[in-house]
Amino acid sequence: MSSRILAHYLIETAHDPARAAEIMAGEQSAGTFVKVPGETPELLERYGARVDAIKDVESVGVPSLPGSKLPKEHDGLYRRAEVTLSFPFENIGASLTSLFTTVAGNLFELSAFSGLKLLDIQIPPAYAEAYPLPAFGIEGTRRLAGVWVRPIIGTIIKPSVGLSPQQTADLVKTLCEAGINFIKDDELQTDSPHSPLAERVTAVMQVINDYADKTGKKVMYAFNVTGDLDQMRRGHDLVLEHGGTCIMVNMLSVGLVGVLELRRHSQLPIHGHRAGWGMFSRDPSLGIAYTAFQQFFRLAGVDHLHVNGLQNKFCETDESVTASARACLTPMPGIGAVVMPVFSSGQTARQAPDTYSSLNSVDLIYLAGGGIMAHPDGPAAGVRSLQQAWEAALQDTPLNAYAATHAELARALERFRV
Amino acid sequence: MSSRILAHYLIETAHDPARAAEIMAGEQSAGTFVKVPGETPELLERYGARVDAIKDVESVGVPSLPGSKLPKEHDGLYRRAEVTLSFPFENIGASLTSLFTTVAGNLFELSAFSGLKLLDIQIPPAYAEAYPLPAFGIEGTRRLAGVWVRPIIGTIIKPSVGLSPQQTADLVKTLCEAGINFIKDDELQTDSPHSPLAERVTAVMQVINDYADKTGKKVMYAFNVTGDLDQMRRGHDLVLEHGGTCIMVNMLSVGLVGVLELRRHSQLPIHGHRAGWGMFSRDPSLGIAYTAFQQFFRLAGVDHLHVNGLQNKFCETDESVTASARACLTPMPGIGAVVMPVFSSGQTARQAPDTYSSLNSVDLIYLAGGGIMAHPDGPAAGVRSLQQAWEAALQDTPLNAYAATHAELARALERFRV
After folding, report:
1. What is the domain range of residue B57?
2. What is the per-residue burial (b if ≥16 Cβ within 10 Å, else e) of B39-53?
3. Rounded-to-integer distance, Cα B114 and Cα B131, Å
4. Whether residue B214 is found in the same domain as residue B310
5. Is A367 an 8 Å CB contact of chain B?
6. CA distance A262 to chain B (A)
7. A61 inside 8 A of chain B by CB
């Protein structure tokens, strides 16, 4: 492995892309806007970032982002190019926070750019020694959930906010009896005055434990412990103490250090929700691609990572969702840290075949909210319809054909149109 | 004060803005994409977010962001409007992380929007009891820096990366003798293999303490302790132990919980760097305005907040920089938590008058890198030129007139053109 850290960008610039790439490299290693004493050639050679590759992509006539400055002579074009920078390991060390500042810091604000997106990074294996990595991953999650050779089928407690702990537990009972594998709190439902986490854990785990005692099946419930650090640790301890098997965290609200500290404390799989991700992703010319971003949280030790879903209710393309999910399932070179992608957002029985064919894997958590609860024949039929849709997908049988002999799937296909 | 939490947005939508605002309110409180059992009118009344105000701004023919979905009948226009939502306090509690998920979560991804930016928030006073707030702020920083009635003038150690601890200390000696008030590590310079924080603190504080012993003036040095939590705490302890008076953190790399934990441990002012901020800010139709964002970190207890600078080397407008700086100096209603804005990025003597007139305050840290080190007569003349520029600004004397009798300022104006 190279001892340098690679970062791959899409840039858009009114300048010569090669010159613009040099500006990025300078700003993110030794540079300021004028030469200063001490910036010797030897220092630049040893600590300077390097432009390893540039590939022209296209030119456009209108800048994607405002505020960039033009060169003295400008032909009216804004050039898009893919740029690979490399940074000396010695600049950064095995530090996720320093790495983030380097590959995703001030460079978004540089005036030479009318677009700048971090597409991918390659993190050296030394990071695997410094960071905890996922403790459970796919294997550990399957073992706790008791689900093999097919996706883990789950749902989100809705309404998002407003149910009392007892109302939540009542809904969990219905879902357990419906045959669900996995349930999660909504990202908005944390430790709130109307549903204190301690009461919710107690009420919900009583139902789950009772159901497990009767059937031998323990449903995995991801309790949203998002909060201040002590609050998250206490939440984790409470879940563990009550026999729970998963905790959830809103990664962007808590931040990298908070997630890392939670992981260092945790004895349970960590379900990583990415609420707020649209800020980083919705502008195609700005921000960070999930292929890059998710690597930080895998090293920090999250076991499940949300990736949106195919034909989702949000704005993301299927291509982007698939790329994110594949990234989660692809070992980081020299590190590994494979995690379980979580498909969620407007998911019903309909998307199972496309999800399977695009991913070519069943190592995923497939969450449907309305897709289960709003099934015309109730939640149990909703769960069955999803199981049937995945059976069809795995057998390569079209959904409509499979629905001819599977009533719950048939009713789901009637109810949920794309 | 209202017991509801207010959030103010700029939206762009192909739908009726009133309908789009209802979608935001639903998604961020009780909603899913279909009605589910349990979402009763009583529950919606008590826990639903509410649209408090809508103001039409303008219409455009091209969507700012891709991926949004059109209504069945679309007139080709995308309407921009300012929307105020309010959330029941009970949904969220006094939790910064839950607040962030609510006001800046999934809503950026909603398909009804081709633009969505969080402009401002109003946080209830209950948060001031739950969070530590800045321990030093303006008064405490001035006391430690020994600077009153004018801005604290400072600089950034450059080259950004590559100097050894001893080389850094040598540069600090030059800067102390030049009469500087404040020095900071670059955001890229953390605890790295070529400049371990422990060695840098030891070498730099020896110089600063020696200079203080001789002159009675202790220069404030913001050591960049950014890292994992234990690393940041150890860094803080080391700085404190060696008589240092400030620590610095890259807020976006560390995240809200990490900064909060650092604050809870710290006995020193915390200098908040916003490297990476461009991701949130450069698209005028997406992300978070700093007027909203900085409130989270003020509650978490940062004492200084970077706001870029007028006529900066980046892409931000002066209007935006001024709004950010004024926000830092404006007490949050019922909370306070005023912090010191830090002007930085391409700053020289030239911007002092405009900075003063736009802010109408001297409660700021004014950082010049090249503006000091690249002064033709050396760093001491660079510092003098900045002091003179601020003298001129405070007397309302044009820089050129003041330069007629102040040689260092005259030379700076020759050297640094806008």
Report:
1. 5-130
2. beeebbebbbbebbe
3. 35
4. yes
5. no
6. 10
7. no
| Single-letter code of the amino acid located at A316 | E
DSSP H helices, B310-378, are 318-329, 352-359, 370-373
CA distance A202 to A200: 5
- Residue appearing with tokens 């700029």: B10
Residues A344 and A258 in one domain: yes
Check which CATH number belongs to the domain holding A153 and give it.
3.20.20.110
Cis amide leading into B88 (omega within 30)? no
> Does pLDDT of B53 surpass 80?
yes
Inter-helix orientation angle A256-265/B256-265, to 10°: 80
> Does A206 lie in the same domain as A98?
no
Beta bridge partners of A122: A6
Residues of B whose CB is below 8 A from A31 = 158-160
Residues 6 or more apart whose CB falls under 8 angstroms from that of A214 comprise none
What pLDDT digit, counting tens, does each position of B302-343 carry?
Answer: 999 999 999 998 999 999 999 999 999 999 999 999 999 999
Of A116, A161, A232, the CB nearest to B30: A161
Pair (A183, A69) in one structural domain: no
Residue A31 at interface with chain B, using a CB cutoff of 8 Å? yes
Distances (CA, A) of B115 to A65, B56, B110, B219: 14, 14, 10, 45
CB count in 10 Å sphere of residue A148: 9
Structure tokens at A335: 């590190």
Phi/psi region, residue A350 (left: phi>0; alpha: psi -120 to 50; beta: rest), is alpha
- B35 band by pLDDT with thresholds 50, 70 and 90: low
CB-CB: which of A36, A160, A283 is closest to B29?
Answer: A160
CB contacts, 8 Å: A93 with chain B: 190-193
Q: What is the largest CA-CA distance in chain B?
A: 79
B287 touches chain A (CB under 8 A): yes
pLDDT of residue A30: 75
Residue B417, chain A, CB below 8 Å: the answer is no
Domain boundary, last residue among A130, A146, A168: A130
Tokens 């009896």 — which residue? A177
Say yes or no: B51 and B126 in one domain. Answer: yes
Distance CA(A195)–CA(A175), nearest Å, equals 19
Q: Is the Cβ of A202 closer than 8 Å to some Cβ of chain B?
A: no
Q: Does B190 contact A47 at a Cβ distance shorter than 8 Å?
A: no
Shared domain check, B122 and B166: no
Please tell me if residue B124 touches chain A, with a CB cutoff of 8 Å: no
Quote the CA–CA distance of B191 and B168 in Å, as a whole number: 13
End-to-end CA distance of chain A: 45
Judging contacts by C-beta atoms under 8 Å, the chain B residues touching residue A297 are none
B160 contacts on A by Cβ (under 8 Å): 29-32
Pair (A110, A178) in one structural domain: no
Q: What total of structural domains would you count in chain A? A: 2
Any idea what the CATH number is for the domain that residue A43 is in? 3.30.70.150
Task: Give the pLDDT confidence of A239-260 residue by residue, as tens digits.
Answer: 999 999 999 999 999 999 999 9
- With an 8 Å Cβ cutoff, are B258 and A257 in contact? yes
On whether the CB atoms of residues A377 and A340 are closer than 8 A, the answer is no
Phi/psi of residue B155, nearest 5 degrees: -150, 170
Q: Are B171 and B27 in a shared domain? A: no
Decide if A226 and B158 are in contact by the 8 Å CB cutoff. Answer: no
A318: how many CB neighbours lie within 10 A of its CB?
A: 16
Q: How far apart are CA B393 and CA B378, in angstroms?
A: 23
Which residue positions in chain A have pLDDT lower than 70? 1-2, 31-39, 418
Over the stretch B380-397, which tens digit does the pLDDT of each residue have?
A: 999 999 999 999 999 999
Chosen domain end from A130, A147, A169: A130
Query: For the segment B163-206, what is each residue's pLDDT rounded down to a tens digit?
Result: 999 999 999 999 999 999 999 999 999 999 889 999 999 999 99
| Backbone dihedral region for residue A86 (phi beyond 0: left; psi -120 to 50: alpha; all else: beta) | beta
